[in-house]
Amino acid sequence: MYDPKSLKADEFIDHNEVLTTLEWADLHKNNRAMIDACLAKARERKGLSHREAAVLLDCALEDKNEEIFELARQIKLDFYGNRIVMFAPLYLSNHCINGCVYCPYHRKNKHITRKKLTQEEIAREVAALQDMGHKRLAIESGEHPKMNPLEYILESIQTIYSIKHKSGDIRRVNVNIAGTTVEAYRRLRDAGIGTYILFQETYHKNSYGKLHPTGPKHDYAWHTEAMDRAMEGGIDDVGLGVLFGLELYRYEFSALMMHAEHLEAVHGVGPHTISLPRIRRADDIDPDVFDNGIDDDTFAKIVAVTRLATPYTGIIISTRESRATRERVLKLGVSQISGGSRTSVGGYYEPEPEDEDSTQFEVSDNRSLDEVVNWLMELGYIPSFCTACYREGRTGDRFMSLCKSQQIQNCCHPNALITLKEYLEDYAGPRTRTLGDRLIASELGNIPKDKVRHLVGGWLHDISNGARDFRI
Ligand code: SF4
Ligand code: SF4
Predict the structure, then answer these.
(1) Which ligand is in closest contact with the Cα of 85?
(2) pTM score, two decimals?
(3) Which of 23, 176, 411, 421 has the most crowded CB, counting CB atoms within 10 A?
């Protein structure tokens, strides 16, 4: 029986409720009155229920779809302005005891080289990431209690925060590791992690069982209920995601929305981020085997409706997506992207061909961080290296209440300019620097409050003179 407040996976992601939602959406996809009502609700910036979001996703009326895209663009602008937050993944270990059939790190794959970074190697990777200009990382590791125990993850986080290479520092470490116990989440919180990210992969329980035939991840309930344990362990910010292509996208999307509703219903705070990856080619993995792949138009619609349904949640896309796709969906609601990513273990210090032998997935966008930063600015975006909220304790419900009152706007824009200025001073190529300084000069005038504008103007000047790490 569907119950968003239940702590049981089968009840907050109730299979029958998903199926009923899909039937309901199919029934109403051409119902103008219904679609208008959903759009009117989305216009209030209060989000949508999973059923409403499903109707909009299915909507087949061309003019209404245009309205959906237009509203997504507007909500994106209202909440996130023209800022895009930058991050990079850092792979610690590809040892894994799970049998995920879509991932080359699965236990039975004998033709990849297994690697686990030592603390010295992590320090080298972090220095290489700092030399690119990154401030925000997402660490990734396979699940292997002997090779990658919690102590290893905790020590690695400590190492990452401790490295101060030249002008660099990593100011926020997000963590993407297997579902674990409340006690382990508490220790991760105490280690100062930012967001805890765990992709559901698929919400369809039967498919989930087949796609995860062996290992602890086989346990659907353990995996699906992980976010509740993380929040019970004191982690305020959690990041959801599904891997589109494994199951039918309509099912995944509705269930993802139900998961977001569940977190809001139980913990009073929805997901901090939603990641929208699509399956990619990798060693031992042929995406053609998964016949549920989604085309670019459907992907754009998913991004747009996610923006309408969860206006306060950051939407993340990675370098799995091509430059052209990224350009398209940035407008529709994406707020965070990775840049200059290496998806192999140790790939930043010793760049190896990102071939199918070593990477978790094939990267579509191979540009350097500087190229991505330059490209964003040419498109009119402000690349932001901001990590201020987490460091000021604005997490969980404190972050959400600020966000809902749109006060976050008064922080994000100035912080984006400050951190971009640091990037320009320390890491940018000459072209990027010229473009960036011009952008900052024109954007400074867009800070509405005189006091904040003057403060930021002074800080920008100080940054030119070598000072660092200002924030609002
Ligand atoms: Fe292991 Fe994660 Fe890959 Fe599954 S998806 S095989 S858990 S690394
Ligand atoms: Fe993110 Fe907070 Fe920085 Fe805005 S001020 S970009 S919400 S960390």
Answers:
(1) 2
(2) 0.96
(3) 421
